[in-house]
């Protein structure tokens, strides 16, 4: 098949001539491309960072369980508790709602632990074995808390891997830790996980809630969480749990709740608003860039009227003239797209570094940018190219 020609010129020659014309007005060409460069770079950065941010939020919520429901004691206006949650309340809910995957009590308190002359500030968590399933905790070695630890009031502890590295030089299992003049035996090591968004980085030590009660002189827990198994609605289970606790404590509104599904909806809503606003700005930049291409091509047509007249006098058709000028318009758009993609990749990497998230540009985003930019060049290049094609050769040759 023969390649299209413009008065004996191959299509490659047309592209080469277009490139030469753009190089001859490099400053004007660059300024023309600026709007598209900004639009493409912004689009890529917004889509990539937005997707990474959404994945990060989903990952953080999944870490604690999106299908999880927290119950807390309500408070008076003065801040005093309306009622109190206890470990017995968690046991009561396990009987009332056996279909829940995990029902986990937890109480928190800052503490200072020491071993072998080394000390460390931690967050002590009084709980039971259900927290391992509820929070997807992974063990590096040893075991987690079990029912016997609670019923026998054992003073045992599960510590984090980084805590063990700071306190012990050898195997920490079976080693003793002192806390508030009590001694606890290390029975398990939790594998370190990456710090999450908003994570304070404070290390945790997990204790049986009964031993925690003895140490701090309270049988209160800060929260009880329910995790729904597959096939069960967490909202329905949470509502039943609240009703059961209110009935047990003979109150109508003694407890409040929190559901991460609502938090996820709010986070997604905020990300959607952010992406929409920035994408709208990027779209405006692309349209402005397209208008800039059209204006520059109109100026180019006016400057090259004699060239057009000569080519038409030598036999060039309207379609061939249209092709030549349209190729210049699309070449500007595609060059701007390439620069925009490079800037977008750089912006994505920079934003990911500043925000502490793993943001990367995916191939579909780059393909979309190239196709969209080519479309911009085609759409806004049609009018000036058709104007060039319709020029009367006699009138064009009279231009000085």
Task: Provide keyphrases for this structure.
13 helices; 6-stranded mixed barrel; disordered N terminus; 2 domains; single chain; alpha+beta; 12 strands; 400 residues
Describe this structure in a few short sentences.
With 400 residues, the chain is an alpha+beta fold. The protein has 13 helices and twelve strands. The relative contact order is 0.18.
Textual characterization of the structure:
With 400 residues, this protein is α+β, with helices and mostly antiparallel strands. It folds into two domains: 11-60 and 265-398, no CATH class; 84-250, no CATH class. 57% of the residues lie in helices and 18% in strands. The chain is built from 13 helices and twelve strands. It has helices at residues 11-24, 26-64, 87-96, 130-134, 147-151, 161-167, 209-216, 234-248, 260-303, 305-313, 318-355, 363-389, 393-398, and strands at residues 68-73, 85-86, 100-115, 118-127, 139-142, 156-160, 176-179, 182-190, 204-208, 220-221, 223-228, 255-259. The protein has a six-stranded mixed beta barrel with strand order 3-4-9-6-8-7. A two-stranded antiparallel ribbon has the order 2-10. A hairpin with a 2-residue loop joins strand 3 (100-115) and strand 4. Helix 2 runs antiparallel to helix 9 (260-303) and helix 2 (26-64) packs across helix 11. The model is unreliable at 1-8 (pLDDT under 50).
